[in-house]
Design a protein that fits this description.
By secondary structure, the protein is of the alpha/beta class. It contains 10 helices and 15 strands. Strand 6 and strand 7 form a beta hairpin. The longest helix has 36 residues. The protein is elongated and about 70 Å long.
Length: 424
């Protein structure tokens, strides 16, 4: 029988056990920290924290990142905003933290193109970015980007906006290699351009639970693309197939460069003051809105570029005035014809809004030579509509109905050899 250890031996044994446990815990922490850093490195550049501070007249927005970044600052007017362009960043910032103070009234962030991200700072008063400082902290390897803003008078701000407008317009035409896909199109099969609304730094409508319009419409559009490509009857181009921003004018340019036979823009509306309103609506382009509600919706959608800090003047291009007007009339006739087919088919799978086919001056429907419609799938302010929009089963049935309407439209168009139905 082993004798009981004396008090000194017992203390030594207990201390040894404690040291072993502490060492094990420290090793686990080190492994966890290493795994976290490795994960962050694998994900590329990650922003994990942001804060706004004010010192005197200067407002500072500081981002904590896992890697250093280079930033470019630009400015836009009407409304007044500062735009910060960054390499592609994975923003993992708390959604519930309000980032405002000093000259910053609101902040948005997200992908602007496949390789770039953008911060859009709504300004409480005219202000310029005076510096973008990069620093690091040795103790934990964190990196910081500090954006410094200072108020200026309106004349100086207007000068900065004028200087930056050319670069902002150039940014709006970046399209992530879509030209190669357009060049690969053949001349035999109809070309359909599917346009998921919003994207990247522009979330579109946001539901109470945080569901965004850009997510809903992209998922629907990808399913529609896959369905249309199933039998090889159509060629399909997407204005975006991931969470990136595309300007309104660039969406129209894509349709025209592809010489599209049909352009379908997919959206989802929201009316927070009327959660009982629901249903699907189809719009065709017209300078004269069919009703006040449609006019308000078009005005709101037409502000999407400004929300992303884009200044892109729309130019229709190379059609003479008289020919353009004749072409536009014919195109609107085709647009209205497809809208009617679509309403008839979608009625079998969705609740339609009152007067489901309407007209308004949407910028994205302005191509004079491409039949175009904008489909509001439903309302993110309606619980019933959100449940449908997020349902795989409904998405399948709705895209099937939409594909059927597209088939009917092209059957009519080819049978009439291009003669357009009469638009309202």
């Amino acid at each position: 029988m082993r004798p009981a250890p004396n008090p000194v031996e017992a203390y030594v044994l207990a201390a040894s056990g404690l040291v072993a446990r502490v060492a094990g815990a420290l090793m686990l922490c080190a492994i966890f920290l290493l795994a976290s850093l490795t994960s962050l490195h694998a994900e590329g550049i990650v922003a994990i924290e942001a804060q706004v501070s004010v010192e005197g007249d200067e407002t500072r927005l500081t981002l904590k990142l896992n890697r250093p970044v280079e930033a470019r600052a630009l400015h836009t007017g009407a409304p007044e905003r500062a735009v910060i362009d960054l390499p592609r960043v994975n923003f993992q910032l708390p959604a519930d933290k309000a980032l405002m103070g000093g000259v910053i009234s609101h902040l948005r962030f997200g992908l602007f193109s496949r390789e770039r991200s953008r911060l859009v700072i709504d300004l409480a008063e005219p202000a310029l970015v005076t510096a973008t400082d990069v620093s690091s902290r040795e103790v934990d390897g964190a990196h910081f980007l500090t954006i410094r803003l200072s108020p200026v008078d309106r004349v100086r701000f207007a000068q900065a906006v004028a200087e930056d407008s050319v670069r902002l317009a150039e940014d709006a035409t970046s399209n992530g290699g879509i030209e190669e896909r357009i060049r690969a199109l053949d001349q035999e099969r109809p070309v359909i351009v599917i346009d998921p609304g919003h994207g990247g730094v522009d979330p579109g409508a946001v539901a109470a639970g945080g569901v965004t319009e850009k997510e809903i419409v992209l998922a629907f559009s990808l399913r529609l693309r896959d369905r249309l490509q199933e039998n090889g009857q159509y060629q399909v181009i997407m204005t975006r197939d991931s969470d990136v921003f595309v300007s309104l004018a660039e969406r129209v340019r894509i349709a025209r460069r592809a010489q599209a036979d049909l352009f379908i823009s997919i959206h989802a509306d929201s009316i927070s003051s009327a959660p009982q309103v629901r249903g699907l609506t189809i719009y065709t382009g017209s300078e004269q809105a069919s009703d006040a509600e449609s006019a308000r919706l078009a005005e709101r959608e037409n502000r999407a570029d400004a929300a992303a800090g884009v200044d892109d003047g729309f130019v229709e291009g190379d059609i003479g005035d008289i020919l353009k007007e004749l072409t536009r009339r014919e195109t609107r006739g085709f647009s209205f014809g497809f809208a009617r087919y679509l309403a008839e088919e979608m009625e079998t799978v969705a609740r339609l809004n009152r007067n489901p086919v309407r007209q308004a001056a949407f910028r994205v429907l302005r191509a004079p030579d491409v039949p175009s419609v904008l489909v509001e799938l439903g309302y993110l302010s309606s619980r019933q509509d959100i449940a449908l929009l997020r349902s795989e089963e409904w998405r399948d049935s709705a895209t099937r109905a939409m594909a059927e309407a597209i088939g009917q439209y092209f059957t009519m168009r080819f049978a009439n050899r291009g003669l357009a139905p009469v638009s309202p």
